Amino acid sequence: MVHGMTHHDFSPRFAIVTGSDSGIGAATAVALADAGMDVGITWHSDEEGAERTASAVRDRGRRAVVARFDATELDDVSAVVDDMVDGLGGLDVFVNNAGGGGRNPFLEWSIEEWRSIVALNLDGAFAGMQAAARRMVHSGHGGRIIAVTSVHAHQPRVGAAPYVAAKHGLAGLVETMAQELGEHGITVNAVAPGEIATPINGMDSEDADRTHRPGIPLGRPGKAEEIAAVIRFLASPESSYVTGASWAVDGGMLQMGPQAGSHLENDGWREG
After folding, report:
1. How far, in Å, CA of 123 to CA of 143, rounded?
2. Cα 81 from chain centre
3. What is the C-alpha separation between 157 and 151, in angstroms, rounded?
4. What is the dihedral of CA 134, 171, 180, 37, to 10 degrees?
5. Angle, in degrees to the nearest 10, between helices 224-234 and 23-34
6. Which range, of 7-21, 70-84, 137-151, 155-169, averages the lowest pLDDT?
7. pLDDT value of residue 180
8. 65 three-state secondary structure
9. First to last CA, the chain
10. For residue 272, what pLDDT is reported?
11. Which residues are tagged catalytic?
12. Average of per-residue pLDDT across 202-217
């Protein structure tokens, strides 16, 4: 058990980033390699993307370990995390980035679809972060756990009921973990991205500067690298007194509730 850790006591060398075959996860793996960490990289369906991320990590002089990871195969999650920790030689930072959802009216979701999305975004996150935390507690060196949630952990979205519910749940899990793991020198925080120009949205970072979003104060989507920069800070010694927090990285999107609501000119939003 670690008491009264200062930021000088924490020197991260080993990180795992789930869902790091593209987008925010890939950018985060590279950012943590730039910060001097060896990185465990996971993929679900895009092994080639994971190998590209691994090459970028190795180009920075760091080691990369690659593994397939399915957050919905709950009985296997902890074993995959443990294998990656063993392959790296330790674990200081765990970034739960794997997630996703679909679009459907609330009245049309099937229970099977609901359970699949909740399993991916909440059950799998619990299993992965618990496995990571157990290794960090056992090592006695403290740690950083960061969950990538969403602005929809704070505000809903039409057509995304199971995703929104799971992200709200994940945000609550982060807060409770922060309470319980603090005595071990482990901080637990969430990063809540807004609209980010990633392959899952059919965009890349260059598209962010070419895309106008009048409803976002900064006027554009974000870039994966901008999310990764905040994660890098939360994974660093400098974030030593930040825990249980949710960092919205959304260009100001969440500040637009009443403003956007009173300025909508038609009912198109009801269709998602």
Report:
1. 21
2. 16
3. 9
4. 40
5. 50
6. 7-21
7. 98
8. strand
9. 48
10. 80
11. 163
12. 89
- Domains along the chain with CATH numbers: 10-271 (3.40.50.720)
- Cβ atoms of 200 and 45 closer than 8 Å: no
204 CB-contact burial (10 Å; exposed 0-12 / middle 13-18 / buried 19+): middle
Cα angle 42, 16, 236; round to 5 = 145
pLDDT higher than 60, residue 6: no
Secondary structure E strands in the chain: 14-17, 38-43, 64-68, 93-96, 143-148, 186-193, 196-197, 222-223, 246-249
CB 133 within 8 A of CB 82: no
Q: Is the pLDDT of residue 3 over 60?
A: no
Grade residue 8 by pLDDT with cuts at 50, 70 and 90. low
Measure CA 67 to chain center. Answer: 17
pLDDT tens-digit map of 122-133: 999 999 999 999
